[in-house]
Amino acid sequence: MSNTSIQTDFYTAVQNQCSHYAISKESVASDERIQEIIEFAVKHVPTAFNSQTGRVVVLLGDQHDTLWDITTETLKNVVPEESFASAQEKMDMFQAGYGTVLFFEDQSIVRSLQEQFALYADNFPVWFNQASGMLQFTVWTALEN
């Protein structure tokens, strides 16, 4: 594959990875391939001090559906009844997807680095917020590709 086609593929993936609201249960990749893409991104996306603080939970099938059932039930206790119909529509739309990817930061690593490198302590939350954004961008772009 030439550099031009790699560049074009990347540009196309970036352009197409924006939010899609025509969500369906159809997958264009195997569950194993989805897991592989996400694990690769978690391992290789740059982080401050090479700490790899990103954590990802991938929910597919029944686990995905259960998450959105729990979320819907939780929102019923928070969202006023007269406003719940639109929240229900959103939850139904999300549940209609193939899976859910949840992103987290390992805060114990952040705290440990803040203690080890006190001079930079205030910067670590900012750096890891940036790393989380890079991880999410990489995952969504790679999945689009």
Which features does this protein show?
145 residues; NADH Oxidase; 2 domains; two-stranded antiparallel sheet
Topology of this structure?
Blueprint: H1 3-16, H2 31-44, E1 54-60, H3 62-76, H4 84-95, E2 99-105, H5 107-116, H6 124-144
Antiparallel strand pairs: 1-2
Helix pairs in contact: 2-6, 3-4
> From N to C, what is the helix and strand string?
HHEHHEHH
Named at the architecture level, the CATH assignment of the largest domain is: 3-Layer(aba) Sandwich
Number of helices: 6
Unreliable stretches, pLDDT < 50, 5 or more residues? none
**Overall pLDDT score:** 89
Structure description:
With 145 residues, the protein is mainly alpha-helical. The chain folds into two domains: 30-58 and 101-145, NADH Oxidase, CATH 3.40.109; 62-97. The protein is 59% helix and 10% strand. It is built from six helices and two strands. It has a two-stranded antiparallel ribbon. The longest helix is centred in the C-terminal third of the chain and has 21 residues, at 124-144. It is globular. 8% of the residues are buried. The model has no long low-confidence stretch (mean pLDDT 89).
